[in-house]
Amino acid sequence: MTHSHILKLFPYPATPLRILVVDDQAINVHAINEIFKDDYEVLMATDGLQAIKICNSQYPDLVLLDVIMPEMSGHEVCLQITNNPATEHIPIIFVTSQDQDIDESFAFEIGAVDFITKPINPVTVQARVKTHLALKLQNDFLRSIAHIDGLTGVFNRRRFDEDLELSWKQCLREQQPLSLILIDLDQFKRFNDHYGHVAGDACLRSIAQALKEMPHRPRDLFARYGGEEFGYILPNTPYSGALHCANRILEITHALQIEHLESDASDIMTISMGVATIQPTKELSPTYFIEQTDKALYQAKENGRDQFVSIDLNNTNTTT
């Protein structure tokens, strides 16, 4: 299958694909930008640390990387990108004046997908980039299938567990707060018994899609946690941000106006939530974080449902 056929099967996203160009010579960066600026969003970096920062925050779809740079070589940059679970799927093409077979072999050994020697030929570099972007789109699509819940169309528990572990490590490394919201549909068994399982499935899909479409940042993740439970992972989110998100979730659920005459909380479907914020440490774990959030969810149910209970685990006196 040619790259053009792959692109038709796996179309570009609504926003342009991003290419990160890394070279300590600004003239080289701008030369490559001229080649790709009409087709892609081109990000630029002139040193390794800047390149890694961009990869960790903006997640480019492909990196064109010089090898010989001061302070941090392209090889070191490549290893940091490919050894980070958050960025390991970003394809890296080395663009370098090194042209020995041993240089090319080493590039592939450390995780690069291609190797282009300078001076670059615009036609060649365009073709290589297009091919590897197409392959990335294909691989992203295949990975997404394994992480999607079949009923609701949102991410599944497997993706939730993987993402929470990843977000925990990132927030630990960056010394940033991590927030989590666990959501439970109130008295869903009664809903199923009264309205039937077909209506129950439709209810789950409606709420899942409404919450999935809620405005969010690229690193936030909404997933089906199990049964009638959902989870929202909010990296780099302080306690105040988690409370704002929880209030918005309540508003969206109420706006759906899904009839639930068997509920003790309301005559429409409502939800209960546990909300927690933590500063990850090496002594704690994601399991502990889930347990504390689940306790808050249980308390919300005990308090009468259709509400949330929150806790700032960095200040355990803070509970609402």
What do these coordinates show?
The protein is of the alpha/beta class. It has helices at residues 3-9, 26-36, 48-58, 74-82, 101-109, 122-146, 157-174, 188-195, 197-212, 239-256, 286-302, and strands spanning 18-22, 41-45, 62-65, 92-96, 114-117, 178-185, 221-226, 229-235, 271-278, 307-312. The chain folds into 2 domains: 3-146, Rossmann fold (3-Layer(aba) Sandwich), CATH 3.40.50.2300; 157-312, Reverse transcriptase/Diguanylate cyclase domain (Alpha-Beta Plaits, 2-Layer Sandwich), CATH 3.30.70. Helix content is 47%, strand content 18%. The strands form 2 sheets. It has a 5-stranded parallel sheet with strand order 2-1-3-4-5, sandwiched between helices. Strand 1 (18-22), helix 2 and strand 2 (41-45) form a beta-alpha-beta unit. The longest helix is centred in the middle third of the chain and has 25 residues, at 122-146. It is elongated, with a radius of gyration of 23 Å. The N and C termini lie far apart (56 Å). Mean pLDDT is 91; it is low at 1-7.
Task: Produce the secondary structure layout.
Layout: H1 3-9, E1 18-22, H2 26-36, E2 41-45, H3 48-58, E3 62-65, H4 74-82, E4 92-96, H5 101-109, E5 114-117, H6 122-146, H7 157-174, E6 178-185, H8 188-195, H9 197-212, E7 221-226, E8 229-235, H10 239-256, E9 271-278, H11 286-302, E10 307-312
Parallel strand pairs: 1-2, 1-3, 3-4, 4-5, 9-10
Antiparallel strand pairs: 6-8, 6-9, 7-8
Quick synopsis:
With 320 residues, this protein is an alpha/beta fold.
Count of distinct structural domains: 2
Globally, the shape reads: elongated
Mean pLDDT score, rounded? 91
User: Cα-atom Rg, whole angstroms?
Assistant: 23 Å
In sequence order, what are the helices and strands, one letter per element?
A: HEHEHEHEHEHHEHHEEHEHE
Provide the low-confidence segments as ranges: 1-7
Kindly identify the CATH topology of the largest domain.
Alpha-Beta Plaits
Structural class: alpha/beta
Put simply, the count of helices is 11
Distance between the first and last residues' Cα: 56 Å
